[in-house]
């Protein structure tokens, strides 16, 4: 792919609910992504997502304002019950959405076979982390864009873009998966509920809190995820951000309670040929959506006009946590 | 009807090369397994250690009548890792594909799909089978109902289920072994060789939880489906995968073979497996649609 310029870089924003979608559209999102109200999408949380009629209205609203709509159908269809996922693709196609975001090979084959004009994006859940994998999805299903897994450095992303014929989209802000997405069963090991099958990770239904010896103990399923001294803020017990003990070392051995903020890397990602920047957080508030979309639009505008990217002012929306550039900087590994 | 086969998965851990060689030699001589997977799946930096003796190991296994599969890396991102994958495909052995990147290269000829490729349903299996997949190891988190729906729909493909050993749960760009030891991934000093079955991760309440194997995270508990083995056969599974550990894998293979052949009661074999692996906690929760850590 040829390198993109700041002018044609797209900002892809989360929309967990119809009001959040309108906020994202109004704040200047180039595209929003959202899901149906069931296990077909990877943010299958209570109170989130779109009914069929919600989605129709949302697509109308977005299109009237020149914003694209991508529908995430990015869990892996349950064996023997793929109809639910097929219907989601059917309905997305009928709504004339701008793309569907898929991860499962069987579902990609279904979509490509039934709707040759439907634009297919490869979900981060497919974890296509190298040119050969991406070329497979492009050649087999006509995928037009790949959301890259959060395991790659900027230099590796540039190499990939030099070796493929489709667009790439990368996460720049929000929750940070430490593990390769779509290849993680940690949540189901503890709760029986997995991102791949159920669209959830470390679900609230399995979270417990109690006090013990002056600590607040956070539990997920049958396991302690952290012990926090009373009075200190307790992060949500996402499994891979917990504190554990290994080799006589106690602490957050997988990842600290940090979230991703790659805003300072936007110019580098642009030079690396990335077409679209993605913001995580369909489960977050409208205030979050508005703040993040506004800031990133300003950053893109600054870059397009040759100005310096403003230093991130998004600390207040990053879950009260410090931020990291994650795998984009090789030292993270 | 062809009897259910046993597959010995690749050694996932960083074992000293002598132990690695001797392990496979003993498997060749004594273990009643049909397929043996060899090759580095987790970290390409380890490949150099056993590259020289790999041909000897393969030859010994084949002389003993085992079908050898070459397992590919689960998360290749580097150019040299891609080259290694291409070399595997150009060899004379069947390749076990653990990342989608090798699918184009193996298309149209018989190959295996390893447990690190997401095959969650009959649609994906059908696509892969149409391109030459003959042996497909399903993701370990699948419950019985999904396994049955997949296995009954595609009779031409051998469906394999993770039946023994610590369950792979995640893979990352970050090396947790190096991180815990205060090293960077690039100068890791191969500290993963200190933990032949993985580095135990406990909760802060001293509950055994996970193990770390370089960039890979596995369950602390050992999956053990000895008591489910005959049911697996009934729902169409035709191969069971045993994943190597420091315990006596020959004895474990015999227990599975005896249960499958009706020579040993499954409950009795399960009790015997506790003697073979005295420190292991067992789990079968994934199969029973529960938390994977549980033994139901």
What does the main sheet of chain B amount to?
A: 8 strands, parallel, barrel
The helix/strand class of chain B is alpha/beta
Any idea of the CATH class of the largest domain in chain A? Alpha Beta
* Total strands of chain B: 12
Inertia-based shape of chain A: globular
**Would you tell me the overall average pLDDT of chain A?**
90
CATH architecture of chain B: Alpha-Beta Barrel
Rg from alpha-carbon coordinates of chain A = 19 Å
**SSE topology string of chain B:** EHEHHEHEHEHEHEHEEEHEHHE
Class of chain B in CATH? Answer: Alpha Beta
Widest beta sheet: strand line-up of chain A: 1-2-3-4-5-6-7-14
Of all protein chain pairs, which has the greatest interface, and how many residues does each chain bring to it?
A-B, 71 and 74 residues
Helix coverage percent of residues of chain B? 25-40%
Number of helices of chain B: 11
Q: From the 3D coordinates, which CATH architecture of the largest domain in chain A would you assign?
A: Alpha-Beta Barrel
- What is the CATH H-level superfamily of chain B? Aldolase class I
- CATH topology description of the largest domain in chain A: TIM Barrel
Find the CATH topology of chain B: TIM Barrel
Shape of chain B: globular
Low-confidence stretches of chain B: none
Share in β-strands of chain B: 15-25%
Q: What does the model show?
A:
The complex is a heterodimer of chains A (333) and B (296). Chain A has 333 residues and is an alpha/beta fold. Chain A has two domains: 6-176 and 258-332, Aldolase class I (TIM Barrel, Alpha-Beta Barrel); 190-251, no CATH class. Chain A contains ten helices and 15 strands. Chain A has helices at 18-26, 52-64, 83-94, 105-114, 131-141, 154-163, 186-191, 195-198, 266-271, 286-304; strands at 10-14, 31-34, 68-73, 99-102, 120-122, 145-147, 167-174, 207-212, 215-220, 223-229, 244-246, 249-251, 259-261, 276-279, 323-324. In chain A, α1 (18-26) runs parallel beside α10 (286-304). Chain A is globular, with a radius of gyration of 19 Å. With 296 residues, chain B is an alpha/beta fold. Chain B has one domain (5-166, 223-280): Alpha-Beta Barrel (TIM Barrel), CATH 3.20.20. An eight-stranded parallel β-barrel of chain B has the order 1-2-3-4-5-6-7-11, surrounded by four helices. Chain B is globular, with a radius of gyration of 18 Å. The chains are: A alpha/beta (333), B alpha/beta (296). At the A-B interface, α4, α5, α7, β10 and β11 of A face α4, α5, α6, α7 and β7 of B. β11 of chain A pairs antiparallel with β8 of chain B.
């Amino acid at each position: 792919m040829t390198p993109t310029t700041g002018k044609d870089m797209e900002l892809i924003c989360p929309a967990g609910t119809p009001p959040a979608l309108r906020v994202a559209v109004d704040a200047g999102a180039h595209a929003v992504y959202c899901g149906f109200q069931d296990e077909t999408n990877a943010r299958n949380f209570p109170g989130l997502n779109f009914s069929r009629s919600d989605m129709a209205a949302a697509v109308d609203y977005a299109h009237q304002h020149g914003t694209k709509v991508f529908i995430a159908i990015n869990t892996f269809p349950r064996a023997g019950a793929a109809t639910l996922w097929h219907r989601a693709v059917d309905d997305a196609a009928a709504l004339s959405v701008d793309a569907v975001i898929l991860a499962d090979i069987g579902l990609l084959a279904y979509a490509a076979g039934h709707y040759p004009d439907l634009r297919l994006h490869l979900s981060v859940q497919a974890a296509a982390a190298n040119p050969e994998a991406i070329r497979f999805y492009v050649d087999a299903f006509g995928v037009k864009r790949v959301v890259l897994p959060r395991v790659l450095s900027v230099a590796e992303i540039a190499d990939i873009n030099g070796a493929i014929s489709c667009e790439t989209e990368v996460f720049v802000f929000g929750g940070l998966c430490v593990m390769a997405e779509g290849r993680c069963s940690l949540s189901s090991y503890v709760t029986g509920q997995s991102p791949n099958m159920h669209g959830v990770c470390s679900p609230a239904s399995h979270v417990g809190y109690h006090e013990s010896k002056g600590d607040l103990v956070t539990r997920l399923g049958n396991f302690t995820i952290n012990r926090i001294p009373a009075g200190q803020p307790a992060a949500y017990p996402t499994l891979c951000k917990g504190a554990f003990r290994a080799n006589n070392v106690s602490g957050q051995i997988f990842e600290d309670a940090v979230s991703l903020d790659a805003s300072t890397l936007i110019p580098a990602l642009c030079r690396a040929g990335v077409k679209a920047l993605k913001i995580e957080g369909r489960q977050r508030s409208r205030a979050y959506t508005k703040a993040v979309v506004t800031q990133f639009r300003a950053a893109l505008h600054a870059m397009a006009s040759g100005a310096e990217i403003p230093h991130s002012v998004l600390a207040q929306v990053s879950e009260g946590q410090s931020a990291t550039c994650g795998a984009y900087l090789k030292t993270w590994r | 009807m062809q009897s259910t086969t046993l597959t010995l998965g690749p050694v996932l851990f960083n074992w000293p090369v002598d132990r690695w060689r001797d392990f496979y030699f003993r498997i060749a001589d004594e273990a009643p397994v049909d397929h043996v997977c060899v090759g580095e799946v987790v970290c390409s930096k380890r490949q150099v250690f056993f590259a020289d003796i790999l041909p000897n190991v393969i030859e010994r296994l084949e002389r003993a009548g085992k079908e050898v599969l070459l397992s590919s890396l689960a998360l290749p991102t580097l150019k040299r890792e891609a080259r290694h994958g291409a070399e595997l495909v150009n060899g004379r052995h069947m390749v076990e594909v653990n990342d989608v990147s090798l699918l184009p290269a193996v298309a149209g000829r018989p190959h295996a799909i390893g447990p690190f490729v997401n095959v969650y349903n009959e649609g994906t299996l059908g696509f892969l089978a149409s391109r030459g997949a003959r042996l497909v190891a399903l993701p370990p988190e699948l419950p019985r109902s999904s396994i049955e729906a997949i296995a009954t729909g595609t009779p031409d493909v051998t469906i394999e289920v993770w039946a023994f050993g610590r369950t792979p749960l995640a893979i990352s760009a970050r090396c947790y072994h190096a991180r815990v030891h205060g090293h960077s991934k690039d100068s890791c000093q191969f500290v993963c060789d200190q933990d032949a079955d993985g580095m135990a991760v406990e909760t802060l309440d001293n509950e055994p939880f996970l193990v770390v194997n370089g960039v890979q995270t596995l369950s602390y508990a050992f999956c053990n489906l000895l008591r489910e083995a005959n049911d697996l056969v009934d729902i169409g599974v035709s191969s069971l995968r045993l994943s190597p550990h420091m315990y006596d894998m020959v004895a474990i293979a015999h227990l599975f073979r005896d249960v499958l052949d009706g020579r040993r009661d499954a409950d009795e074999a399960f009790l015997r497996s506790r003697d073979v692996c005295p420190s292991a906690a067992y789990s079968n929760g994934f199969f029973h649609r529960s938390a994977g850590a549980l033994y139901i």
